[in-house]
Amino acid sequence: MASAPVCVLNRRSMSLTSRLVAWGNSLWIEWRIALRFLADNPLQTLLISVAISVGAAVIVFITALMTGLQNNVIEKTLGTQAHIRIEATRQHNNFSATPEGKYIWALESPRAQRLQTINNWQEVRDALDQYPGLNTVSPLISGPAFAQKGNARASVALMGIDPERYAGIIELHDYLLEGRFSVGASDVLIGRQLAEDLGLRTGDKLRLDAGDNRQAVMDVAGIFELGVRELDSRYVYTDLKQAQTLLDLPGGITILELKITDVFSAEYWAQRIEQLTGLHVQSWMESNGQLLNALRSQTMTTQMIRVFVAMSVIFGIASVLAVSVVQRTREIGILRAMGSSQQQILRVFLLQGGLLGLAGSLLGVLIGYSLVQVFNNLGERLFYIQLEPSMLISAIVIATAAGVIAAMVPARRAAKYDPAVAIRYV
To answer: pTM for the full model?
Structure first.
């Protein structure tokens, strides 16, 4: 009596095994039929595969091109500035209390902002260093001064930096035109435009005057060019201590600059840091509204191109398979009469759509990859296109999925054919 449950289990496992084997055999037959249908009209199959490959190549190349252009714009624009700037809380006008029930109409002018230091900036810096999404936290002291050589004078922005940390914001080594990178006690770096305006070369003396008899004579250690005229004509880099002395802010800094991993999450981090510290925080997304709109427009354009190309692939495959259904009516009727189910006929045409999409996308990815290499290596290169593997995979997935989707309507039509009517069809 104890062996009865074992026999039942054995029967069930054998039944499941036989079902799996039967399903595998059925699927293999469906694959063979789908391939046979595609091979019977090679010209038609070739033409639709080429059309799909063109669509996949467009998806790959246009996506890579737009992404490379976007990265180039971000690098050129944000490469010379921080993603997030932290400053001391803004000062506001104070009004005396008014009697209860009284109203005062007043025209308020914004209060002039003087140089303010960030309280306990070392603690804020060390706390922000703990967040993995923040790549660099660099202290900066910035204030106005006059640069003078002989009778030539220019208004400049004095930038006191910590060289090691500031390299994570702007790698000044890469922008040096001449001289050496040095911002010691008596060395400064100046922009190319400022050097031309004052007639300076490396090794020359430069007088800096921050007002109230705070002056220093510095040596021009190097000349840089950031590629932004406003910066190249005004920035004078020195170390923190020298800037603190000239601007009369002993031990203080005016700004904490941050670089983050994901530049498009800058606004999120800015709001989070402002809530944590209570300081005034501004992201590049807030200060560069036009740039942000341009980047969003590029992204939207890329997505629209991908959608329209995918739609053209879908309609192309659907039209070919619709014709194939009409051409294969007798064969479909014979298959149904021989016992093929509606689901099997459905899968045959879905497989055809998937195979067309897959074959065309593989060829298209190869063409798109070649176009990217031609763009990167031939002629005068405007910018470099970084082709990510995810772009290639997404193009294959989109084209293959489009093939399956396009095959649904013709496949459902074929599966619903009455065998007797289909066989008599001429």
So the answer is: 0.67
Torsion, Cα of 26, 31, 33, 38 (10° steps):
170
What is the DSSP secondary-structure string of 270-296? HHHHHHHH-SEEEEHHHH-HHHHHHHH
Long-range contacts of range 273-277, CB-CB < 8 Å, 24 or more positions apart? 273/84, 273/86, 273/128, 276/127, 277/86, 277/124
- Whose CA is closest to 276, among 268, 284, 288? 268
- The DSSP code for 110 is P
C-alpha–C-alpha distance, residues 208 and 385, integer Å: 44
Sequence-separated (6 or more) residues with CB below 8 Å from residue 336 = 345, 417, 418, 419, 422
Task: Average the pLDDT over each of 126-135, 175-184, 317-326 and give the range with the smallest value.
Answer: 317-326
The dihedral through the CA atoms of 367, 368, 374, 380 has a sign that is positive
CA dist 326 and 287 (Å) reads: 61
Q: Which of 125-139, 288-302, 390-404 has the highest mean pLDDT?
A: 125-139
